[in-house]
Amino acid sequence: MSNYNVVVVGTDGSDTSLRAVDRAAKIAAESEATLIVASAYLDDGDDGGTAPDQARDEKYRTEGNAPVYELLHKAADRAREAGATKVEERAVEGAPVDALLQLVEDANADLLVVGNVGTNSLVGRVVGSVPRAVSKRAKAEVLVVETED
What we know:
The protein has a 5-stranded parallel beta sheet, with helices on both faces. It has helices spanning 15-31, 58-62, 67-81, 96-106, 122-127, 130-137, and strands spanning 6-10, 34-41, 86-93, 111-115, 141-145. Helix 1 links the parallel strand 1 (6-10) and strand 2. Mean pLDDT is 79; it is low at 46-65 and 118-128. The longest helix is centred in the N-terminal third of the chain and has 17 residues, at 15-31. It is built from 6 helices and 5 strands, in the order βαβααβαβααβ. 42% of the residues lie in helices and 21% in strands. The protein is of the alpha/beta class. It is globular, with a radius of gyration of 14 Å.
């Protein structure tokens, strides 16, 4: 296994995405790397079909009980339980692919971990999936974790 300094994992809080968090945490623990647990949100002007409880702007994220932070806390706690010791949480603005890729670049990450949800769906094959898109565009190594049952 390679030694990594910074590992980024994307999550939307779903059970399947938390499986990717588990795998990323194990890798980060083995490498003594920083693990950045990330979730994307879209701003008010671009709802992009997000779920109704998905955070959409800075005001929403900083005032009240924003769901994006609750899911990040849950994922970070799970990562610590899996052995990661240096865990950061990041809510990043933008569509998931663009937000994750920008975070990887900004954090100078060595590895991006994502789940494979959507790669085998009809929508994933027609319009593309997050795993497929980040694999093509990332400037870091990408690990696509089998997360579906």
